[in-house]
Design goal:
Layout lengths: L11 H15 L8 H15 L4 H10 L3 H12 L10 H18 L5 E7 L5 H13 L6 E8 L2 H9 L1 E2 L9 H7 E5 L2 E4 L1 H4 L2 E5 L16 E4 L8 H14 L5 E4 L13 E4 L4 E4 L10
Parallel strand pairs: 1-2, 1-7, 2-6, 7-8
Antiparallel strand pairs: 3-5, 4-5, 8-10, 9-10
The structure holds S-adenosylmethionine.
S-adenosylmethionine binds next to loops.
Length: 289
């Protein structure tokens, strides 16, 4: 029903249908108090498609020939992609100073290292990891891959381009800017080619294990600031997928506001000097709660 501005209100029933549909696809939980946020973010889609109300939009998402593309656009409108280089320095210090020496020893025979940045957004996290690997000087001549995945194709395109402005660099030490970026325009830098050579990106929905086939077994998974958008069952699905993918003894690094309490008993909590991380036990063990 159009109102003053010509934009239709989302009814409670439309909110429930759209919210459940989004949750079923990607596990993102739109909280009950976010009806107006959802309405505001999806209004431009109704306008773009010439639809008069949210019921018509729901039917479009379910049945139209273009429904897959539109679902991606809707998810895009509803997700948050906040990220930047060298986010959460204490954890990165633990990674560099304590995990990397271990990994150098563990993988000395294969000289192979895999890191998965799950929910990588526009690539800052994956490139940061590659810069830390380079900084350590431990992996030259190794087969190294930092693989970033995300559900949003738009952020993946930005990640592949590898060009950034000042906001992405707000926590990056100046010496790292000088060492790992080249200037490509006013206030615009690009990640240097030797770092890019270690990094790749791919599309992946963390709620859909079938699409994880292209991700090879990681030694370390960064899954930071992604679980916060899911409810408990959706978080547990992601953690099961990460657990299955990780090599035995491999590590999981979450965002600073996230933990596995009441979510998974599969991982061991490891107290490093600078931070806490999770580890998949060497010989299986653990069990779901
Ligand atoms: C806030 S960003 C975090 C970026 C980065 N990990 C960091 O901590 O800086 C969360 C990312 O998770 C992605 N995401 C949300 N749901 C997802 C899903 N079901 N599968 C894969 N990625 C998802 C979003 O598209 C977004 O880019």
């Amino acid at each position: 029903m159009p109102f003053d501005t010509g934009r239709p209100e989302m009814t409670a029933e439309e909110f429930r249908l759209l919210r459940d549909f989004v949750y079923g696809h990607c596990g993102i939980l739109v909280r009950d108090d976010m009806k107006y946020v959802m309405q505001r973010r999806l209004w431009p889609r109704l306008e773009a498609l010439g639809l008069t109300d949210f019921s018509a939009y729901y039917r479009y998402l379910r049945f139209d020939a273009q429904r897959r593309a539109e679902l991606e656009t809707a998810i895009e409108a509803l997700t948050t992609h906040e990220t930047y280089f060298f986010r959460e320095p204490r954890q990165l210090k633990a990674f560099s100073e304590e995990l990397l020496p271990q990994l150098e020893r563990r993988n000395a025979r294969t000289k192979r290292l895999r890191v998965w940045s799950a929910g990588c957004s526009s690539g800052e996290e994956a490139y940061t990891v590659a810069m830390l690997l380079k900084d350590s000087g431990r992996f030259e001549g190794w087969d190294v891959e930092v693989h970033g995945t995300d559900i949003s194709r738009r952020v993946l395109a930005a990640a592949r381009q590898g060009e950034y402005g000042p906001s992405a660099l707000r926590a990056t030490p100046p010496d790292k800017v000088a060492r790992y970026f080249v200037h490509v325009g006013p206030n615009r830098v690009r990640v240097r080619d030797d770092i890019r050579a270690w990094v790749s990106f791919g599309h992946h929905n963390l709620q859909d294990p079938d699409t994880a086939l292209h991700i090879s077994r990681p030694d370390v998974v960064f899954c930071r600031n992604v679980l916060i958008y899911f409810d408990t069952p959706a978080r547990q699905r992601v953690l099961r997928l990460i657990y299955d993918k990780l090599v035995p003894g491999g590590h999981l690094l979450l965002g600073h506001s996230e933990n596995l309490i009441n979510l998974s008993a599969d991982f061991e909590l490891v107290h490093l000097r600078s931070d806490l991380v999770y580890r998949k036990p060497e010989l299986g063990g653990g069990g779901s709660p």
